[in-house]
Amino acid sequence: MFEQTFRNIDDVLWKEAGCATELDYTEQTSWMLFLKYLDDLEYERAQEAELVGKSYRYIIDEPYRWSAWAAPKTADGAFDHDEALTGADLIGFVNDDLFPYLQGFRTRATGPDTIEYKIGEIFSEIRNKFSSGYSLRDALELIDSLSFRSQKEKHELSHLYEAKIRNMGNAGRNGGEYYTPRPLIRAMIQVVKPRIGERIYDAAAGSAGFLCEAHDYLRYGPDGQGDGSHLSTSDLDTLQARTFYAKEKKSLPYVIGIMNLILHGIEAPNVVHTNSLTENLSDIQEKDRFDVILANPPFGGKERKEIQQNFPIKTGETAFLFLQHFIKYLKAGGRAAIVIKNTFLSNGDNASRALRKELLESCNLHTILDCPGGTFLGAGVKTVVLFFEKGAPTRQIWYYQLDPGRSLGKTNPLNDNDLQDFVARQAGFEDSDNSWTVDVKDIDPDTVDLSVKNPNKAEAAPLRDPEVIINEIETLDRESEEILEGIRGML
Question: Locate the DNA methylase adenine-specific domain: which residues (predicted)?
Answer without folding.
Answer: 153-459
